[in-house]
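User: Can you predict the 3D structure for this chain?
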Amino acid sequence: MKHLLMMTAASFAVTATSAFAGGIERSSQSAMVLFEKGNHLELTFSHVTPSVSGVGFAVTPGQASGNMAKSYSQVGFAYKHQFSDRLSAAIIYDTPYGANVLYPTSTYFNSGAEAEISSSSLTGLLKYTLPSNVSVYGGVRYQRMDANASIPAVGNYTINTNTDAATGYVVGAAYEKPEIALRVALTYNSSIDHTVTTSETIGGGAAVDNNLGFTTPESLNLEFQSGVNKNTLVFGSIRYVKWKQFDLRPAVYLGATGESIVSYSNNVTTYNIGVGRKINDTWSAALTLGYEKSNGGFAANLGPTDGNLSVGLGGSYTKGNMKITAGVKYIDIGDTQTTLSVLPAGVAAANFNNNHAIGVGFKVAYSF
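Assistant: Here is the predicted structure, written as structure tokens:
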């Protein structure tokens, strides 16, 4: 049992690098730290290097966009405290959403466009375990977000926002069978409503200030694991996110283009499956596969991706109460097309094909 749980940590180090999951997601919002044994502290670091480029079709035909997705790094931590055999709590810090877009200067129609979305969240959870091996858990999430963008092709449009803080909630339940390392957990993360103050300019005019409301989406996580034998563990997850709820429609940009600056026409389900293997009392390894369906249709020019396939490798080293895990993931990003409001319906502005990202993750954990 102890070694099987050690191997799940290796898999989490790989899946922590959730580059180009649906929408602007950068965290799976997992609550599974609640199931670590005893008191548990962990620190995580990940770095993602994407390569996302396209070629103009109906607009600036044949002109290459260059790589428009910037590399990024993020850190996180979690602490779980065991109060008694039945009651435990956790606090989790992560960056659930983000975007780092910069189109290089070129002859491509979106040359020089850039956008950044930043977020951070702090989640507090309580878990109570019933005598029947069923546990229930829940808590509150405090989330901060801000954004800025510059789009030269739309009359040198710019937008900046303040940072807004808002709260949501988390509820979940799980069933465990410790003798075979079985766990099935279902977690619901609520949507969170934000309102930011925006400052927009266009065409060299004066800044226009407005309030902008938007919602980060609700989601469901189904996470599971089961021992195959004393040295092998199978694990996985299904994550469903209502990305249709996310729609950024700043007033000046909407008036100029008739469009949202970022929105999504499809909800997204992401699947991960993996196997962990104990090598010896110190080392274990894990292999993961991931899939996210391509939905078709047009993608946003600030987010020209649609679905993905991924493969990840992770390893874990345990010495006493210390556990160090590391992983690498390769993501094959789905092909897509973008369009513009000035084009006839159904006509593509650009094609984005053969793109990918590489993510690395690192975790240090200490149990006591």
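Residues 1-6 have pLDDT under 50 and may be disordered. The helical segments are 2-15, 251-257.
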